[in-house]
Specification:
Helix content: 40-55%
Mean pLDDT: 90
Low-confidence stretches: none
Number of strands: 2
Order of helices and strands: HHHEEHHHHH
Distance between the termini: 50 Å
Radius of gyration: 18 Å
Structural class: mainly alpha
Number of helices: 8
Strand order of the largest sheet: 1-2
Strand content: 5-15%
């Protein structure tokens, strides 16, 4: 109770539209071991959803052009509209299941990454399972970055940063971005505005 922790600002790495395009253009089949890592990373870029929420998204959350789910971190119910690319990704996954004559179980996870007994785990075990799955995905993202020639260190959280930075750089309001990211405090969202301001300064410095 007598200790105050000071928050330290970190570099919010994000990808440019060109870099995202490189990953989108990487041809992988569903049988490729990098396929799900690519899909999850792009989905985070398209939605800004935290990796823990992406891994635990169920088909019943998908309402067509929007997601309705409980944010694990804040325990807040949210409705998230989907952009065309995110919606198309889920439609393709549904089509693939139907093609293989697999019924779409509303309680099944959209991205089937977590262990099958996940629902039976206690809170600590569930967190460990999510962290373990995230670490595996991040390792595969490093391979994807090498494959497409991206020198930045990418991880699942970089997708969330890219989502926010892209929206703000294109004129989205900071409070709208806060809602989409599910931030409880606007100060957290303001970090992304600072990223854009720093980029502006670097561009102007090209004139000096």
């Amino acid at each position: 109770n007598n200790i105050k922790l000071k928050l330290q600002e970190t570099n919010r790495e994000h990808l440019t539209p060109e870099e995202i395009g490189k990953i989108e253009s990487l041809k992988l089949t569903p049988l490729n071991r990098l396929y799900d890592a690519k899909e999850i990373f792009l989905f985070e870029n398209y939605t800004g959803i935290r990796i823990a929420d992406i891994l635990t998204l169920k088909w019943k959350s998908y309402q067509g052009k929007e997601l309705r789910f409980l944010i694990r971190k804040t325990k807040k119910n949210t409705i998230l509209p989907l952009c065309d690319k995110a919606d198309r990704m889920l439609q393709i996954r549904q089509h693939r299941l139907r093609h293989h004559k697999i019924d779409i179980n509303p309680d099944a996870y959209i991205f089937n990454i977590l262990p099958q007994n996940f629902e039976k785990l206690n809170a600590e075990e569930a967190l460990n399972a999510i962290n373990s799955s995230t670490a595996i995905i991040n390792a595969k993202l490093k391979e994807i970055a090498v494959a497409v020639g991206i020198k930045k260190k990418i991880s699942t959280h970089v997708g969330r940063h890219t989502f926010a930075t892209t929206l703000i750089s294109r004129g989205a309001g900071i409070y709208d971005v806060q809602e989409l990211l599910g931030h409880a405090n606007i100060k957290t969202t303001m970090i992304y505005a600072k990223v854009i301001d720093e980029r502006k300064r670097k561009v102007i410095n090209l004139l000096n």
